[in-house]
Amino acid sequence: MVQVVGATTQQEVWVASRERKFIINEILLVEDQLRNSPRGEVIETYSFNRYIPLATETNGLIDEQVLAGLKAVGYSVDEEEINIAKLRIIGEISTPIGVGKQVRLPDFQEVEDLLVSNYPDYALTLGTIRGTGNLLDDLPGELSDTMCIYEQNAGIMPQDGVPFIFDYKSMNEYPHIGIFGGSGSGKSFGLRVFLEEFMKKRVPVVVLDPHWEMDFSTSFKGLPQERARDFSGEYKLFVVGVDVGVDFTDLKAAELVSLLGSGESLSEPMSNAVFTLHENKDSYTSFSSKLYGLITVMENESILNQDSAAIDNPREKEKIDYLSKLAAKYKDRVGHLSSLKGIAWRLNALEREGVFTAGTSPVEGAVMDGRLSVVRGPVKLLQVYGAYLLDRLYRNRRDYQDARQKGEPAKWFPPFVFVTDEAHNFSMKGERDSYSKRVIRGISQEGRKYGVILCMATQRPALLDDTVTAQLNTKIIFRTVRVTDINVIKEETDIGSEEARRLPYLNSGNAFLSSAITGRTIPIKIRCACTQSPHTQNPFEELEQVYFQQENQFWNIIKDKLPFSTNALHLVLGTISDELGKLIDHDQLIEQMNKLEEDGKVYAEKNPFGTTFHRSS
Ligand SMILES: Nc1ncnc2c1ncn2[C@@H]1O[C@H](COP(=O)(O)OP(=O)(O)O)[C@@H](O)[C@H]1O
Ligand SMILES: [Mg+2]
Q1: What confidence score (pLDDT) does residue 536 get?
Q2: Is pLDDT above 70 for 212?
Q3: Ligand 1, residues 149, 151, 188, 189: which to mutate, most atoms within 8 A of Cβ?
Q4: Which of 68, 388, 460, 575 has the most CB within a 10 Å radius?
Q5: Are 318 and 298 spatial neighbours (Cβ–Cβ below 8 Å)?
Q6: Which domains does the chain have, with CATH numbers?
Q7: Which atom of ligand 1 is nearest the CA belonging to 192?
Q8: For residues 424 and 427, what is the distance between their CA atoms, to the nearest angstrom?
């Protein structure tokens, strides 16, 4: 029997039971017809017995009133085992619940409205709701057996509760997602699950992948065949500077300034110089010729003092004419030589990365096609390029929507989702302005109008630009240990102090989802992904595997050549090296043989002339 034994506030009551241990996050129903049988979530649990007594003065958790309540309903405090839980009532009730009211586990139908807002066919199946294991048998077919769960110690397990299904279409009203959590807490894993679900629904997504981990070609190890899914054809991998880049001819001067500014803003003089030099439709060559031409002139003024008519070499003459024209047109307006050199240096750096060799059209094509684009590159470059790319795609979408609004003909460009890890680098809190920060800020505030949604993951929410954080209507919070980050999370979400206290101890893959879409904080466990990164192998297991293979190979080669003696090694060294495909010398061979002896595969017979190795048994 479970009963109400006290109340802290109208929304929070204490319940107690002799037999039943409470499970964190489970939902219980209070039998109270007058108040429409309110339901509540278990947010704290305790067990007391005579060895951990309840009524000691050191126990500040349970107040006098609860003790009185326990006694009133017949508990002999200090003598029997008592399980106690704090129940947070969901939804409003007008008057406090009285002591003595019965509490029980609800049927699925009695809590369905709290747990399920949509079905897998129409929304994203991200995982399960924690504390709902006892509702499993009650679930309708559409919600049963929809996924696997992964436990680090136990491996792949069946669905362990009510599915958490994220109604992504509601992002139309409440856009943008934040994914917060310390290193190893499950962000990348969670992002992968999000991306898989978006692919299933054919939502165009662009993800920046600085860690080269977002590949979907490898099935999750051990996943049952019927859960596996082939994502080939649904995503494309692009490398910045190889498959995608900047179409220089399409650049506006302001964009070039932003690109050259890299992580920060370009200095005022450099920015002015770019605006002066750059003309619409400039190619990389035409722009850089102007730049280098002016640098030549400014470094060596005397070059223009020559009389070009007196120069014989026609190419030399042409060059002098070009430089004179350049100087006449720009020299007084571009500022200092040092600014031009700064620009040249930055332009060169981008050029060397191959940024100007390809354009954005491959990604635009994939977005149009409703596919996932994985964009890879060095972190620093990805930050600048990502901003440029996002800005482009966003503009395409805006141009389309704006034109349509005005009734003008326009080429369709779809709404899309933009995803990035390490989002704090992209949009850093503080004074410093950056290209990516401007773009992300703009979209966080206006993207909703155009159906452009951000999904920002970071291990340092405290470093993320406040303006952006405030616009993330859904936040998924994994294990977080740093106090500064926990404080930001407390401020920016509606998670309660009980949840905040649990944040440092969450297992990888467990999270609290706080969202305007769900209305209340929901404890979830992210499902097992269908795929895994090709390089998630434990590095130590990898070492073992490689060495094991090498030893095996060596054994296979050596075993037919036994027995041989150390004073006749020269007879076998050559063939062994040939078969191994690499040179092995006398000492290395002896070392390997000693290892085989330790393993019991060979035994060594010592004699006056050396050692002879024999095959064991
Ligand atoms: N949903 C999950 N279910 C089970 N294990 C998980 C889950 N998420 C993460 N893990 C485990 O934790 C490890 C680290 O997760 P990862 O997503 O790489 O962390 P992060 O990106 O936050 O640093 C994974 O390799 C996996 O073993
Ligand atoms: Mg990660």
Answers
A1: 55
A2: yes
A3: 189
A4: 388
A5: no
A6: 2-106 (no CATH), 112-164 (no CATH), 165-245+358-532 (3.40.50.300), 248-352 (no CATH), 539-615 (1.10.10)
A7: 17
A8: 5
In the prediction, which pLDDT does 395 show? 96
Give residue 538's pLDDT. Answer: 62
Which residue's CA is the closest to the ligand 1 atom numbered 2? Answer: 509
Nearest-angstrom CA–CA distance, 178 and 476: 6
pTM for the model? 0.83
The residue with tokens 């349509």 is 404
Q: Who's near 525: CB < 8 A, 6+ residues apart? A: 127, 128, 130, 149, 160, 161, 509, 510, 511
- Output the pLDDT for position 70: 87
Q: CA-CA distance, 390 to 434, in Å (whole number)?
A: 14
**6-10, 249-253, 350-354 — which is least confidently predicted?**
6-10
* Closest ligand to the CA of 187: 1
- Collect all residues with Cβ–Cβ distance below 8 Å to 147 and sequence separation of at least 6: 125, 127, 128, 159, 163, 227, 527, 528
For residue 55, pLDDT over 70 is answered with no
Q: Provide Rg for the chain, Cα atoms.
A: 34
* Percentage with pLDDT > 90 across the chain: 67
The first and second tokens of residue 69, run together, are 């309540």
pLDDT in tens, 130-171: 999 999 999 999 999 999 999 989 999 999 999 999 999 999
Q: Which two tokens stand for residue 338?
A: 């040092």
**pLDDT score of 581 more than 90:** no
533 CA → ligand 1 middle, Å: 11
Helix (H, G, I), strand (E, B) or coil at 50: coil
At 13 the three-state DSSP class reads: strand
Ligand 1 mean position to 161 CA, how many Å? Answer: 19
- The residue assigned the tokens 């199946």 is 125
Pocket of ligand 1 (CB under 6 A): 150, 152, 181, 183-189, 508-509, 526, 536
CB neighbours (10 Å) of residue 481?
14
